[in-house]
Amino acid sequence: MASIQRIVLEASAPTASADFYTGALGLDSRVSVQPSDEPTTGFRGFVLGLVVAQPATVDALVSRASQAGATVLKPAKKSLWGYGGAVQAPDGTVVTIASSSKKNTVPASSTIDEIVLQLGVADVVASRDFYADRGFTVAKSYGRKYVEFDTGPVGLTLNGRSSLAKVAGVSPEGTASHGLVIAGDAGSFTDPDGFVWGAA
Fold first, then answer.
1. 150: which of 109, 137, 145, 176 fits an S-S bond (Cβ 3.0–4.6 Å)?
2. d(CA 169, CA 76)
3. What is the pLDDT of residues 100-143, one digit of tens each?
4. Which InterPro entries match (predicted)?
């Protein structure tokens, strides 16, 4: 089974970005930042998804992210599938924070149960086949709309780019670099949508 060990984000101000992910979101074990002068304009083509236990934790993390300089793209609220919101980190990365629960059962915490890298792709089926050919295990697949892989510590999903941008509350337009390196044990390669993979 191919796995993802770490998400490496590229930023023009890496120290400040690293402080945001560590201090506001507590992601230092799975997210790191490296310097880059590559320009990124608009939607970077991916969303960093954080799954937590309950609405109070969503609210707490959205608040901490906002206080640390993030822009709230979608205020947290109830939906058909649970409770969640979206923010844009100072480096431009879109982060969704969500819970499948609509009710609080314990005091809010800062615990993140799952980290999921959501890639916005041009052709979900073609990208699914590309990854399956490289040893990625498909956990769920819904035709041309959505694919979920079993990738260990960091989850991976494929979504249509426009659909993913809509969920995140941003325009799907974007240019230049994704500003992302996906570090795992699947080898070094670039996928059909330009997402770069490297060794963990």
1. 137
2. 12
3. 999 998 888 889 999 999 999 999 999 999 999 999 999 999 98
4. Glyas_Bleomycin-R_OHBP_Dase
